[in-house]
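[09:14] KT: can someone run the structure on this one? pasting the chain below
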Amino acid sequence: MNPRGPNVHLIGVDGSRHELGTPALILDLDAMDSNIASLSAHATANDYLVRPVAKIHKSVEITRRQVAAGGYGTCVATLNEAEVMVDGDIEDVLLFTSVVTPPKLDRLAILNERAVGLTVVADHAGNVAQLGEAARRSGRTIKVLGDIEMGSRRTGIADEDILVKLVHQIVDTEGLEYAGVQGYGGGHMSMSDFGERRKIGLEVLNPVVSAVERLESLDLAPEIVSGGGTGTHDIDHELGVLTEIQAGTYVVMDGNYLDVDMRRDDTRPFSPALFVRSTVIGNAQPGFVVTDAGLKEVDVVLGMNHPVIQSGAPEGAVYSVVGDDMGRIDFADPSDHLDVGDVVDLIPPHCYQTIIMYDWFHVVRGDTLVDIWPVDAKATW
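[09:31] RB: done, structure tokens below
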């Protein structure tokens, strides 16, 4: 079999989207490009940069399209993702989690030898020293952001005095370049009501505003102030503190954001672009059918146990994951019917968790499969 799977022969064939072997991860190119263009236009109009989050899709090709539309490099969650993006000729990669173990610090030093504009974050004095050693081994400067905690109980420094001390340490460490600060709080990103989300979003930015003002008063003005996300992109720019927004899910969307009012004047600027295609494999009993997409094919980790059926099923039908490799479609009307071999398209509840279950995106434009792209950065190390 071709390493790109059983559907390669369908590339370029009219109507081939409907002939795909399943389960298959489908990427709608027109919808994705429209999403990228929408956020790019919003960023230009509101004077911020988009720092696309590659951890969402783990694809060099998607990142290239985001950068071509004006995105400022990319940001990633793992060292492997950083390595894959750099090796894909992506510049200005921001690794927003700390690198602390000796093997990873060795890899970071090697990566920095070939990277352009590599940036990392730190919230611990000992780690700043480690990063300085790695930079010196690489023979090149590494940019560093001080990490600010915003109430999410994740990484970051909550005490402003400690943050200032850390920034001074970065400035004084040979091999490091102080580039700014990061502050991310994601607990409110998918709240559906815009007004409620805006209230919380502005409140959680207060530590960042205060820290930036303090640093500016000490002649340590940050060049980069990074944070925010898809759910707050029409909020984060209001205070004028963030220079860039770490937006990820917008590029393909998912069930988690499906009912979220994204903007005050345009509640649905982004369209679903990612689908799992599944085939009916059994209809021996009335009232429901069984499909070939279960826990290993569509993610329900966020507690959204019923992936949205985008197309292919009767109105009111509900999809449930009922096994490792099986799903079930329950009909609202007992007289409804699907034949064995019929297909449905599902919107994944969580795009990031679903994408890592696959090796390939089946890229479609309209009803035609136009390419098959790899999920490049699946490894977690």
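[09:33] KT: thanks! The chain has a mean pLDDT of 96.
[09:34] RB: yep, looked fine to me
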